[in-house]
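Suppose you are handed only two things: the residues of a chain and a line of SMILES describing copper (II) ion. What would the bound structure be? This form records exactly that question and the answer produced for it, so the two can be stored side by side and reused later without any lookup.

QUESTION INPUTS
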Amino acid sequence: MKGPSMAQMKKVLLLLLLLQALSLTACGSSGPSTRIDITITDFMFSPDEFTVSAGEEITVRATHNGTVAHNVKIMRYGSDLGEEFDDEDKANIYWEMDVRPDGTETARFIAPTRPGVYLLVCAMPGHMQAGMIGRLVVAAQK
Ligand SMILES: [Cu+2]
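ANSWER OUTPUT
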């Protein structure tokens, strides 16, 4: 029995390299980031989902385009906020920052080491219900 020729082998190798290059490009555009650029309005986070790598230092740049005070709170893994953000939920805050109207603030935090989906919320009364809720997706370190 005759095996594949050298020319055939080269073709297969070339195809594999091409596929790998394509998948790398795809990963680069939607993979975890060490930056969170968030725009805050009354009453929305935009975007409302971010992906970071576990344990990485993350820089948050928050631009406030609204008129009332807001904040960004990342909740501990598995937190259930229920109907509204109340005193009970304060104990489950992983990280938080306040943002004043017409300002841009930068802050840093270390992403949780446990991969999973974390809630991101504004804890001002009524704001979560109005739509100020989002997701921080923590991806496992590669
Ligand atoms: Cu708010």
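WHAT STANDS OUT: Residues 43, 70, 122, 124, 127, 132 surround copper (II) ion (CB under 6 Å). The two ends are 43 Å apart (CA to CA).
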